TrEMBL record:
GO terms for biological process, alphabetical: proteolysis
Domain of life: Bacteria
Keyword line: Hydrolase, Protease
Residue span(s) of domain HTH cro/C1-type: 7-63
GO molecular function: DNA binding; serine-type endopeptidase activity
Coiled coil regions in record: none
InterPro entries per the UniProt record, alphabetical: Cro/C1-type_HTH (IPR001387), Lambda_DNA-bd_dom_sf (IPR010982)
Protein name from the UniProt record: SOS-response repressor and protease LexA
Listed EC numbers: 3.4.21.88
Broad class of enzyme this protein falls into: hydrolase
Length: 65
């Protein structure tokens, strides 16, 4: 699952519009749209901001191959 798909899934679980998420995260709706569409690869910093805004915790991990 891509970061954009994860963002969209959590946003929809909350019943939020892209505009609501953008406002909560202090960014623009167009950026949220581009992230969700996979047109922009968000930084870890941006993902953290989005997770915080959606009352979620970002977790990253590496696994052995």
């Amino acid at each position: 699952m891509t970061p954009g798909e994860l963002v969209r899934r959590r946003r929809e679980e909350l019943g939020w519009s892209q505009s609501r998420l953008a406002q909560a995260a202090g960014t623009g709706q167009a950026l949220i749209s581009r992230i969700e569409q996979g047109r922009v690869s968000p930084t870890v910093q941006m993902l953290t901001r989005l997770a915080d805004a959606m009352h979620a915790q970002l977790s990253l991990s590496f696994s052995p191959r």
